[in-house]
Amino acid sequence: MTPVHMPGLSVTASGVTVSAPGDREPGERETLLADVSFRIEPGEFVCVLGPSGAGKSTLMRAILGERRLAAGRLLVGGHDVFAKADVLRGAIGYVPQQDVNPPALPVDRALLYASEVRLPAGTSIVERRAAIDRVVAEVDLGRVRHHPIATLSGGEMKRASLAAEMLASPGLLLIDEATSSLDPATEARIMRLLAERAHAGTTVVAVTHHLDNVDRADKLLILGHGEVVWFGTLADARRYFGVHRLTDIYVAIEDRPPGFWSARWKEHRAVGPPPPEAREGGPRAAAPSAERVASLAAVSIPGFPRQVATFFRREVETVIRDRVGMAMSLLLPLALAVAVLAGFADIRFRNPLTLTRLLDPGEKEVLADVWGEVREAISTDSVSEQNASVSGQLRVFLDSQPKLLAHLREPSTDRLVRDALADTLPLAPDREIIDPGGTFKWLSLMSICMVILGFVTGFREIVKERPMLDLERRHGLWFAAYVVAKIAALAVVLAVQVAIFRSTVELGFLIREAFGGEGPVEIYRRSAVLSATFNWMAAVACAAIGLIVSACVRSTDKGVLAVPLLITPQILLGATILPIRGGVLAVLAKVFSPLYWAHRGCRSEGDGVPAFWQNLGTYDPAAWIPLTALAVQIAAATLVTILALRWQERAILGRNRPVR
C-alpha cells in the first residue's frame, strides 16, 4: 500500500473558546482562547505569533483535538477535529518544540521505526523505505542519514523530527515553537523548508518566537490575551498596527488592555475589504456557503502484535547503540557484585551453631538440686559464713573465680534456670549445625540489590520519552503495546544485568573456596540458576512498578524523589530485616513486595533452622508459588501503568480520541 501524497487541508476556527480550571478559587475557570475565528486555506503557510501567554500553544493543541472547546468549532479539511479524530489520524503532522527521535539511533533507523507506526498497517518494507528516501531528500538529510541523531546539529535534529512527520505525507503540518532553540541561520533554513512544503501543497501552521523569517509565510495569525488581533499578510499587519517592526506589535498588544485589539480587529473585519482569497478570481477562492470536506480515509493503524514488536525492537536497539548507557548498564551490576564480595570477605559461612532443647525430667531434677546448692553458696557475703557443706565448698571454689561468681549472682541467671525448669526455655544442648546467619544475610543482600536495580531502571523510562509517546499516540499507538514492549525490553536488559551480577558473585565465591575459603551454604539456599530467576523476576516486577511512577510524573527529577519511597517499603516487607510470619504484614508483603517473593524463593528454611532465623513463618516451599506470584505482580504493574497513562490522557491532557 503506497502512501498517497495528501492534498493540503484547510483549517477553520469559528468562535473557538477554550477554558481551564483556575488557580485562585475552586470551580473558577480561566479563559485561554476567546471567540477565535479564522480560516487557513489549503497550501498556505501561516505563522502564529503573539506575546507569551497569548494562547498560541493552546490553539495548536485545540487543532490537534487535545483541548475541549467551551464554545465554537474547529474543522480540518472540513472534518471536526473532535468528532473525526480517527479520520484525521495521519492527516495532521505535528512537530513539537522538543525533538522526539531516539537520540542513540541513526536517522535512517529512527525513521524506519517511525514509518512502522505512522504509515498504514498494510505498507510493505519496500514502500516504507521509499517513503524514508523521499523525506530524507526533502529535508536534505542525506549526508547524515546514517549518523546517530545525538551527533547532529540542532537544525539537523529538527529536520529529522520534521522528516518523521512527513513520512505519511500529511495534509496539515503543525510546528509548535520548533525553531525557538535554534540559531538564526538554522532557523532561517527551517523556515525556508516549511515555505517549500507549503508551496508543494501542504498546509503549514507554525508557532514561532523568531520574527526575522516570518516574511516567508503567506499570512500571520497574531494572538493577544487569548484573542485574535490580526490575521493577514505581514505588510498589512505593519500598516494596521502603525509600526515598522514586528516587535513593536508585541509592545502595542501589551500596552493596551485585554479586549482592545480584538475589538478593533472585529470592527476592521466588519468594515474592511474582503480578504484576497474571497475576491473574484482570487487564487484560493473560499467555498461560497459550506465548508469543503476533504475526502480522507481512516488510516488502518498497525495492530497490537505489530506495535509491540516494533517498539520492542526499537527499545533494544536504542539500548545497544547507546554506548554510554550500555557501559553503565554493564558496569553497575559488576560494581554491585564487587561490593557484595568485599562486604562478605570476612564472613564465615560455616561457623558451628549449637541448637538447644527442653530439659527432660531427670535433667530438671538434677538442675533443681544443683541450682539450690549454688544459690545457697552465693547467698552470703563471704566464705566464712559458710560451713563445710557442699554449698560451702562451692563458695570456696567460686571465690577463686570472681567473674563466674558475679555472673551467677545476676538476676538473669536465676531467670534462665526458672524458665528451663518451667519448660519455657530450651537450655539443654541438642545438636550442632552450620550457622545459617551468613548465608541468609547474603541472600537478603543479593535480592535487595536486584530490587534496587529494577527500580532504578524503570522509574525514568516513560517520563524521559513523554514527548515521543505523546506524538506517537497521535498516530494511533496503543498504550498497552507501548507498555508491554517497554517491560519486555527492560526484562532483556535486566536479564543481562542479573546474569553479570550473579555470575560475578558466584565466581568470586568459587575462587574463594578454591583457596580454602568459605562460600554460602547450599542447604540454606536454592540453586544458583533458580535464585537468579527469582532475582530477575523481582527486578522486572520492580521495574514495572517504577514504570507506574514514571507514567504519573512529568519530569525525571520528580521520579528520582519517588525512588526511596519505593525501595524502603520493599525492604521492610521483604522479610530480609523484619520477620514476616503472618497477619497484616504478610498480606501486604505478598501483594505489594516483589522482594518478599524473591527472598522466599531464594531462601530455604529447612528443618533445624533456629526459630530466630525463620523470617517467613510456616509456608509452602514449592518454587512455583513465588514464580507465579512474581508473574502476577508484573502483570498487575503493567496493567496499572496502562491505566495511569489512559487516565492522564483523559483527565489531565483532555484528549478526545479513542483510548486503547
Could you explain the architecture of this structure?
- The protein has 660 residues and is of the alpha/beta class.
- Helices cover 52% and strands 11% of the residues.
- The protein contains 23 helices and twelve strands.
- The protein has helices at residues 56-63, 85-88, 107-118, 125-138, 154-166, 184-199, 234-241, 246-255, 260-271, 304-321, 323-343, 361-378, 390-399, 402-408, 411-421, 437-458, 466-474, 479-514, 528-552, 556-573, 583-592, 594-602, 624-652, and strands spanning 11-21, 29-40, 45-49, 71-76, 79-80, 92-95, 172-176, 203-207, 219-224, 227-232, 352-357, 428-434.
- It has a six-stranded mixed sheet with strand order 6-7-8-3-9-10, with helices on both faces. The chain has a four-stranded antiparallel sheet with strand order 2-1-4-5. The protein has a two-stranded antiparallel ribbon with strand order 11-12.
